[in-house]
Design brief:
Elements (H helix, E strand, L loop, with lengths): L2 H32 L6 H19 L2 H10 L6 H19 L2 H24 L2 H23 L4 H6 L8 H23 L13 H14 L9 E3 L5 E4 L2 E6 L6 H20 L15 H15 L3 H15 L7 H8 L13 H19 L8 H13 L25 H20 L3 H5 L5 H10 L9 H9 L6 H14 L3
Parallel strand pairs: 1-3
Antiparallel strand pairs: 2-3
Length: about 500
């Protein structure tokens, strides 16, 4: 064995153990959101800080630099070359962040999440302000370290969407915003379609949610479905868990949150098993990740074909749904109405919710907006964008968990994921001409298999935009998504 070969072997073995420890850290976060007793919050903060310290020490181990240097010029597979690229990127970024800061971020965000949940439940924004101030300050410090004189927000964004910048997002959002606003105005002039009516048993909702999960290919032998305040997906490889939430008068909240998280989970379950516990064994970016959750939820799950099947299944499970037929159910699933909640938003308005958050979090990171003023700034911007006032913080700036746990730079990846999903849907329907006929039977396998082959199996082998371009044959743009939305809602609302 040559020195280069030995260095590569040693580096990948070391990284394998680091990835396993990171999985353990992720399991602590899952437990915190689902099973952890409320009184354990402070202790969990210390536990999270401890394992974060261990991970930071491993990720900055000087041997990594030595191994990387020794591997220069070595012959290796495409996969190993990609692993080294990702290890080098992570090593360089982690070295810029002091261990003290990494540990403090883990401790503070663990505790802040609980404070956010309590403030949200009590509709008390002021109670959350001190925690938010601390999180923003720490993330600003981290961004400054990572940016190394460059743009702080771009440095944070790079955590979630490598190669993306705020300037490019501004250009994309600038293209999308006027077309979405114009269509929204036309749609809201039309009569509001009838929604579901009645009370929907929460146990039955969870049972039907599990049915939907397996219908979309989620492997329950390598996962589980639980409840949480904010639905999420966690894990990779052979342990990928999802959560949802339940509302007795709105089953769509539970069911479509489930389908959304199943999209995330199937991405992780669909990655080539050979990449497990390696830098390639996870989704390549949050934008690509969101492309999977959004295409499962929207282009597949909210399609006329699939909702026709879903209508029959829900009628069998719940009885009278309050809508007369499958077409009425399709309209109810996709109805556009004035509302406050991002996760419950229709496809037409969803990206406007994201753009609001994107602008506000950039202002927080740049110190153009004080954390104490976030509630007022949110309410003003929401009224400007949507035309009505926010009545309380729980449906305003406290509705999302993201900022409480420091996820600044995460929100724009939702819209980027929608853009990617639009591109993938157009390519997929060309490849599967009878897809609608299959979805009408509740058969998603052709679609999910296509996504697994063209996106999911690759994990982090390619760069984010390259994944989409490889699958679609062209570089991603917002045009397919905008065309899809305009066609769908013009048909629904007879425009």
């Amino acid at each position: 064995m040559t020195d280069r070969t030995q260095a590569l072997s040693d580096l990948l073995a070391f990284q394998h153990e680091t990835e396993a420890l990171a999985s353990i850290a992720g399991r602590l976060e899952w437990d915190q959101e689902t099973m952890m007793p409320a009184g354990a919050a402070v202790q969990r903060g210390e536990e999270s800080a401890a394992i974060s310290g261990v991970l930071h020490a491993r990720r900055t181990d000087p041997r990594i630099g030595d191994w990387l240097a020794a591997c220069e010029g070595a012959r290796m597979s495409q996969a190993d070359a990609a692993k080294l690229r990702l290890i080098r990127r992570n090593y360089d970024r982690t070295l810029k962040v002091p261990a003290r800061l990494a540990i403090e971020l883990a401790r503070v965000t663990s505790v802040s999440q609980g404070k956010w949940a309590a403030a949200r439940a009590a509709d008390d924004f002021a109670a959350f302000v001190p925690a938010l101030q601390e999180v923003v300050k720490l993330r600003q410090e981290e961004g400054e370290a990572l940016a190394d004189g460059g743009d702080i927000y771009d440095a944070l964004l790079d955590d979630y969407e490598p190669d993306m910048t705020a300037a490019r997002l501004d250009e994309m959002f600038g293209e999308m915003r006027p077309r979405l606003r114009a269509l929204r105005e036309k749609v809201l002039e039309k009569p509001l379609p009838q929604g579901l009516s009645g009370t929907f048993d929460t146990v039955k909702q969870m049972e039907f949610a599990a049915t939907l999960a397996t219908t979309f290919g989620y492997d329950m032998t390598r996962g589980r479905l639980d409840l949480s305040v904010h639905p999420f997906s966690s894990g990779s490889g052979s342990d990928v868990r999802i959560t949802t939430r339940v509302s007795a008068d709105d089953p769509f909240n539970c069911l479509y949150s489930t389908i959304h998280e199943v999209g995330h989970a199937c991405y992780e379950q669909g990655i080539d098993p050979a990449y497990a516990l390696s830098p390639l064994g996870q989704g390549v970016s949050m934008g690509v990740h969101e492309s999977q959750s959004r295409i499962y939820e929207n282009q597949l799950g909210r399609s006329r074909a699939f909702t026709g099947w879903m209508f029959a299944q829900m009628g069998g499970a719940f009885g009278n749904l309050g809508v007369p037929d499958a077409e009425g159910f399709y309209a109810a699933v996709n109805r556009v109405r004035n509302d406050f909640i991002r996760t419950e938003s229709d496809e037409l308005q969803y990206n406007l919710h994201i753009m609001l958050r994107y602008d506000l979090e950039r202002a927080l990171i740049s110190d153009d907006l004080r954390p104490a003023d976030l509630d007022a700034a949110w309410n003003d911007r929401f009224e400007k964008d949507f035309g009505y006032r926010v009545p309380k913080p729980s449906v305003g700036c406290l509705q999302d968990v993201h900022w409480s746990v420091g996820l600044f730079g995460y929100f724009p990846t939702y819209t980027l994921g929608n853009v990617y999903a639009g591109c993938l849907d157009a390519a997929m329907r060309k490849a599967i001409p009878d897809l609608s006929d299959q979805l009408a039977k509740g058969d998603t396998s052709a679609a999910t298999d296509w996504l697994r082959r063209n996106v999911q199996q690759h994990g982090s082998l390619y760069r984010p935009a390259q994944v989409i371009e490889n699958a679609c044959g062209t570089a991603p743009t917002a045009a397919p998504l905008l065309d899809y939305i305009e066609t769908k809602f013009s048909d629904l609302y007879d425009l």
